[in-house]
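Page 37, continued from 36.
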């Protein structure tokens, strides 16, 4: 299993957090709110497509709604492989951070 890119990790975490409300617009909104950076629609949907094709996400269509002119939304759900990828990525992060000094204001850099 590969280590996730930061973008893919954020998308998977957003899908997990949003649960039954995980679709493109809500995922993008949560990532923007969490990171404070604007993410393009294309960046979100590229990641969603890659993660779905890789088996980390399952996609399904909602029923058509009048608010959307009779169109349906494409929702996403984390798969077992997606959850395993998040766990592995967290383990890698934890391992890399382990034993590092506190990132306080007294950090000396060159």
């Amino acid at each position: 299993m590969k280590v996730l890119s930061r973008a893919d990790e954020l998308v998977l975490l957003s899908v997990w957090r949003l649960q039954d409300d995980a679709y493109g617009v809500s995922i993008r909104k949560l990532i923007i709110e969490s990171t404070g950076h604007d993410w393009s629609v294309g960046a979100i949907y590229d990641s969603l497509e890659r993660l779905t094709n890789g088996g980390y996400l399952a996609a399904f269509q909602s029923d058509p709604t009048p608010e959307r002119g009779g169109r349906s939304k494409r929702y996403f759900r984390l798969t077992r492989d997606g959850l395993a990828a998040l766990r592995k990525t967290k383990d890698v992060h934890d391992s890399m951070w382990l034993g590092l000094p506190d990132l306080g204001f007294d950090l000396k850099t060159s």
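The longest helix spans residues 80-97. Flag for discussion at group meeting. The chain has a mean pLDDT of 89.
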